[in-house]
Amino acid sequence: MIKHELTNAPVLILPDFELQLKLYIDAACSRGLGATLYQRQIVDGEPREGVICYISRKLKDSEARYGAIQTEYLCLVWALEKLHYYLEGAVFEVYTDFTALKSLLNVETTNRYMLRWQITI
């Protein structure tokens, strides 16, 4: 199965806004940000998770000095802003490998970047 997936080009699907979307985010400290927007749809009678879009970018020099927490936070905010035309008004879940991100959304902070990001989210 892995060989099949690696040797076939991924096919992008059109979103069905009646169904839930899934946003997978990942950030690599001092490297870059990435996100993938998925959706589970029924294709030929079978449930299938398909990719709607991939986005990524390299971190700016100033962002490369962020810690892991700020980089993951930045990744979430960047993905939400970049994909707002898909996500605005839609039901979606965010998936990340950074488990502390969920609790950070409810923490009071004096860090001006994180305050702005909390407002954005």
UniProtKB/TrEMBL annotation:
Classification via InterPro entries: DNA/RNA_pol_sf, Retrovirus_Pol_polyprotein, RT_RNaseH
Keyword entries, A-Z: Endonuclease, Hydrolase, Nuclease, Nucleotidyltransferase, RNA-directed DNA polymerase, Transferase
UniProt domain Reverse transcriptase RNase H-like: residue ranges: 16-120
GO molecular function, one term: endonuclease activity
SUPFAM superfamilies reported in the protein's UniProt record: DNA/RNA polymerases (SSF56672)
Lineage: superkingdom: Eukaryota
Keyword Nucleotidyltransferase: yes
Protein name: Reverse transcriptase RNase H-like domain-containing protein
Record organism: Austropuccinia psidii MF-1
